[in-house]
Amino acid sequence: MPGHLIRRLQQISISVFSDRMRALGHDLTAPQFATLAVLARAPGIDQATLAGMIAHDRPTIGGVVERLEAKGLVTRHQNEKDRRAKVLALTDEGAALFQHLLPYVRDIQPDILPGLTESERTEFIRLAAKVAEAGNASARAPLVSKPAHDAT
């Protein structure tokens, strides 16, 4: 069944990512890396916007951001325009870590889809993206491509 296979692929992906991070001497999860990646290209967004941009629910993102803040990789400051919201940014250490890890994360992508040729991986990714886009509205935490508004 597709659902079981998708769950197994998620397990493989997380295992490959976690093992590689540990081998590099880093305690960083895939959602934490995704957070660093989004903040590298969209500094100053709030947690709700971040959650949408990596398709995680708000409580999960809250924990991810707390752990990154505790590691000194992310800062949270009160939004000047909306005092209820916190704006997020990478620290210098967070930006440097992201840039350092990015080539390694790119290099492990084939390991996440073992047994496929390069053309098969390309086709698999194309089809998986098509399914994810078509089912986005059904997700508990839909992906939001771009921030709805300027959070700063």
Q: Can you characterise this structure?
A:
The protein is mainly α and 152 residues long. The chain has helices at residues 2-23, 30-41, 47-53, 58-70, 92-112, 118-135, and strands at 74-78, 86-90. Helix 1 (2-23) packs across helix 5 and helix 3 (47-53) packs across helix 4. The protein is globular and about 50 Å long. Keywords: DNA-binding, Transcription, Transcription regulation. Residues 2-133 form the HTH marR-type domain. Pfam families: MarR_2. It comes from Gymnodinialimonas phycosphaerae.
Give a concise summary.
By secondary structure, the chain is mainly alpha-helical. It contains six helices and two strands, in the order H-H-H-H-E-E-H-H. It has a two-stranded antiparallel sheet.
Helix-strand blueprint:
Layout: H1 2-23, H2 30-41, H3 47-53, H4 58-70, E1 74-78, E2 86-90, H5 92-112, H6 118-135
Antiparallel strand pairs: 1-2
According to CATH, what is the topology?
Arc Repressor Mutant, subunit A
Specify the structural class. Answer: mainly alpha
The number of E-state strands comes to 2
SSE run: HHHHEEHH
CATH architecture: Orthogonal Bundle
GO molecular function: DNA binding; DNA-binding transcription factor activity
Organism: Gymnodinialimonas phycosphaerae
Keywords: DNA-binding, Transcription, Transcription regulation
Pfam family, one: MarR_2
Salient structural properties:
152 residues; mainly alpha; Arc Repressor Mutant, subunit A; two-stranded antiparallel sheet; 2 strands; 61% helix; globular; HTH_MarR-typ
